[in-house]
Specification:
The complex is a heterodimer of chains A (133) and B (275). Chain A is built from two helices and seven strands, in the order H-H-E-E-E-E-E-E-E. With 133 residues, chain A is α+β, with helices and mostly antiparallel strands. Chain B has 275 residues and is an all-alpha fold. Classes of the chains: A alpha+beta (133), B mainly alpha (275).
Chain lengths: 133, 275
């Protein structure tokens, strides 16, 4: 009986205790975070904000940096962003690009390109649509 | 007590095993996506299920078989921790995880990938070593192989390790939607035949030792049980990756059967090779 009990004692060196400690912290932290995150996320649909940066010439055309942020609690797939350049004569010039995936609370960056110089003119960004993954 | 050098070797084997089994998944984009499209509670359930599988595997086959359940829990925690660490490091090196991403995305991607790494670490630690295994194997019955519960756990581990590599890909859904009912039946027969061949007729390493051969009815029962375990593993993995969401029942069944071929290979070969 005593022999069996002795054998069942956990024998570990310091390295194994360290690995166990780190492992326990990681596993408990991950699980805790996931459960907390799941409890606080209330399933708000993607809410996407588009911000424009400073336009700059590239030599071939003019590019405008675009930052897309999802403030919702769900991931959006295939987010299409369109930027309209107004103020010119005739048909307004449009630039657009698509973000494959925009996870909740994540930010992605891109550029839209124009032939005419957008500096000093009005730029209107708009999200066209996105899919539920 | 092991020396620090011995422990280091053991961890090295574990990490090698983890990468060996999970690298295809670390390089698959559908798996990264599952990290941020899945609900956090689904990920938490995935962690819990994997932990249960690790406990089972370590209980029946862990390297340190002569120890109590406490050490099995400790080993499983270590393996899962290593899995998380390795998965994060590789994802970071691949540029899939960056520190300016939101925490949900980082934790999600790492968790999804880490679970397969953890099973790989467990298998690697106990299988890739050269030292002999302890004599008093608790999972081993009188016939020389682990008893029924142990066999099912091992088959499940093999099925998950193998099927997880193809389960998250779009191809499974594509095949399931396009394949005809007759071909699907053919896939079922192929799975059963593969299982019977590997377990009973091809003299795979270990088959004589771990599989009972007494009567023809053993072959039938063994094959069917292995296929059932494979289908269960397939359905569970597909459900986790959200492949059943909004699908018709027929498509779900078809996907399970399509993935079941891979799971059967893993379950049957696993029963012989992961011992």
């Amino acid at each position: 009986m005593t022999k069996k009990e002795k054998r069942r004692q956990v024998e570990k060196n310091w390295l194994e205790w360290v690995v166990f400690g780190v492992g326990l912290a990681l596993v408990a932290g991950t699980l805790g975070y996931l459960i907390y995150d799941g409890a606080t996320a209330d399933g708000v649909p993607p809410s996407i904000e588009v911000k424009l940066g400073e336009p700059r010439p590239t030599g071939h055309n003019f590019i405008v940096p675009v930052t897309v942020t999802n403030h919702g609690d769900q991931t959006a797939e295939g987010v299409t962003v369109e930027v309209t350049l107004g103020g010119g004569a005739g048909e307004p010039e449009r630039g657009e690009f698509a973000v494959a995936f925009l996870p909740r609370r994540a930010t992605r960056e891109g550029w839209v390109a124009f032939r005419t110089d957008p500096r000093g003119k009005s730029l209107t960004p708009r999200v066209l649509g996105y899919e539920k993954p | 007590m092991r020396t620090v050098t011995e422990s280091l070797r053991e961890y090295a084997r574990g990490v090698a095993g983890g990468l060996l089994f999970s690298l295809p998944l670390l390089y698959t984009m559908e798996v990264w996506w599952a990290g941020f499209t899945s609900h956090p509670w689904r990920l938490a359930a995935y962690v819990a299920a994997t932990f249960a599988l690790l406990l089972g595997y370590n209980y029946y086959l862990g390297l340190r078989r002569d120890t109590g359940f406490g050490e099995v829990v400790i080993d499983s925690v270590e393996e899962m921790g290593l899995g998380l660490l390795v998965a994060f490091l590789i994802l970071w090196l691949l540029g899939r995880v960056t520190l300016d991403q939101p925490t949900t995305e980082i934790v999600g991607k790492t968790t999804v990938e880490a679970m397969t790494v953890a099973i790989g670490v467990s298998v690697g630690t106990s299988q890739l070593g050269a030292e002999g295994v302890g004599e008093d194997d608790k999972g081993v019955g009188d016939e020389g192989g682990p008893h029924f519960g142990g066999q099912v756990v091992i088959a499940l581990c093999g099925a998950v390790l193998f099927a997880a590599n193809v389960a998250p890909t779009e191809e499974i859904v594509m095949i399931a939607v396009e394949v005809s009912a007759w071909r699907l039946l053919g896939l079922v027969l192929l799975s059963l035949a593969l299982s019977a061949l590997i377990l009973y007729y091809s003299e795979f390493a270990g088959s004589k030792k771990f599989v009972r051969f007494d009567a023809r009815h053993d072959v039938l029962v063994g094959t069917v049980i292995t296929y059932a375990v494979a289908l269960l593993a397939s359905a569970a993995i597909l459900a986790f990756f959200g492949r059943f969401d909004g699908q018709a029942l027929a498509t779900c069944v078809a996907q399970t059967v399509v993935l079941g071929v891979a799971a059967t290979l893993g379950a049957s070969a696993g029963r012989l090779l992961l011992q």
